[in-house]
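Q: I'm building a small set of examples for a reading group on sequence design. Run inverse folding on the following structure and report the sequence directly after it, with nothing in between.
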C-alpha cells in the first residue's frame, strides 16, 4: 500500500511544460530520491504536493484515497512536512523559537493534537517537542542562539528540526546537502537513513553520492518527464540517464557531469 501516489501530474507555466504526466509513488518507510538536471521540474513536483502551485492535471492519492491536491495549510493534517530549497528561518528568532513557532502554528490549527493532547497548547510541551527535534539534529546546545548568528550548514539543521518536530509521515527534502561540507553530509546521510523507521522521505538532491546511498528507489526527471526509475544501480547505468546528464554537462551544467 502506497503512502503517496501521484498520477499523471502535469504543470504548465504559460507555454512551458514544467511537468508532463509524472507518476511517482512513495511507500511507508521508504526513502525515494528525485533527481534530474537544473530546471527538470523537481521543485515543481514538491510545490504541487505542498499546494504552492495548482497542477493543471493529475491525481493525488494519499493512503490509497484519491483526494484533492492539498492546500499549504492542510499539509500538517496529512502529516507532510518539507524543507525549502533555501533555508527560510526567522533570522532574529532563536533556534528554539524557530522550531516552536512552526509547532505552535500547527497546534493552533489543531494539527499536533495527537502529540500535545486534545486542547493543550501548553508552552512547556511545545518547548519539549522543539527541544527533542533540536536534539535529533544535534543542536540542543544552540537552542538559545539566534538563527542569523549561525553558519549556513547549521541553519539547515535547524530547518530540518523544524520539519521533524511535527513528526511527519512524509518528509520532503529539497537539496538538503546543498552547501554542506563533507562532515555535515555524512551526518545528513545517517539522519535520512534513520528516518525510515518513523517516516517516508522524498528527497530532491544534486549530490549524487547522497542520493545513491540513502535512497531505496530513485526517479529521474528530465525536461518535466520521468525518464528512468529504479534502485541506485539501475538508474546509474541507465543509458537515458547518462545521456540526460551528459547532455546537460555539454551545455554548461558541468555540476552534473
Ligand atoms: N513559478 C514559476 N513560473 C514560471 N516558470 C517556473 C516557475 N517555477 C519553475 N518554473 C520553470 O519550470 C521548470 C522547472 O523548474 P523547477 O524549479 O521545478 O526545476 P528543478 O528541477 O527544481 O531545478 P533546480 O535543480 O535548478 O532546483 C524550469 O524551467 C523553471 O524555470
Ligand atoms: Mg529545485
Amino acid at each position: 500500500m502506497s503512502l503517496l501516489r501521484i498520477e499523471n501530474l502535469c504543470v504548465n507555466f504559460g507555454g512551458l511544460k514544467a511537468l508532463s504526466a509524472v507518476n511517482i509513488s512513495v511507500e511507508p518507510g521508504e526513502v525515494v530520491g528525485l533527481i534530474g538536471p537544473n530546471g527538470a521540474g523537481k521543485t515543481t513536483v514538491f510545490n504541487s504536493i505542498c499546494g504552492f502551485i495548482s497542477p493543471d492535471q493529475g491525481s493525488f492519492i494519499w493512503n490509497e484515497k484519491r483526494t484533492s491536491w492539498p492546500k499549504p495549510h492542510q499539509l500538517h493534517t496529512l502529516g507532510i512536512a518539507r524543507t525549502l530549497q533555501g533555508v527560510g528561518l526567522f533570522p532574529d528568532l532563536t533556534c528554539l523559537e524557530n522550531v516552536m513557532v512552526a509547532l505552535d502554528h500547527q497546534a493552533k490549527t489543531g494539527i499536533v493534537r495527537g502529540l500535545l493532547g486534545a486542547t493543550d497548547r501548553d508552552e512547556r510541551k511545545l518547548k519539549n517537542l522543539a527541544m527533542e527535534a533540536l536534539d535529533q539534529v544535534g543542536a540542543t546546545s544552540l537552542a538559545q542562539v539566534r538563527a542569523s548568528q549561525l553558519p549556513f550548514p547549521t541553519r539547515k539543521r535547524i530547518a530540518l528540526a523544524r520539519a521533524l518536530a511535527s513528526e511527519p509521515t512524509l518528509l520532503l527534502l529539497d537539496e538538503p546537502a546543498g552547501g554542506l561540507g563533507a562532515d555535515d553530509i555524512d551526518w545528513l546521510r545517517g539522519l535520512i537513513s534513520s528516518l525510515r523507521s518513523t517516516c517516508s522521505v522524498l528527497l530532491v538532491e544534486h549530490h549524487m553520492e547522497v542520493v545513491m546511498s540513502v535512497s531505496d528507489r530513485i526517479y529521474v526527471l528530465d525536461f518535466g518527464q520521468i525518464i528512468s526509475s529504479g534502485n541506485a544501480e539501475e538508474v546509474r547505468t541507465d543509458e537515458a540517464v547518462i545521456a540526460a546528464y551528459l547532455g546537460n554537462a555539454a551545455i554548461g551544467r558541468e555540476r552534473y557531469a
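Residues 88-167 form one domain.
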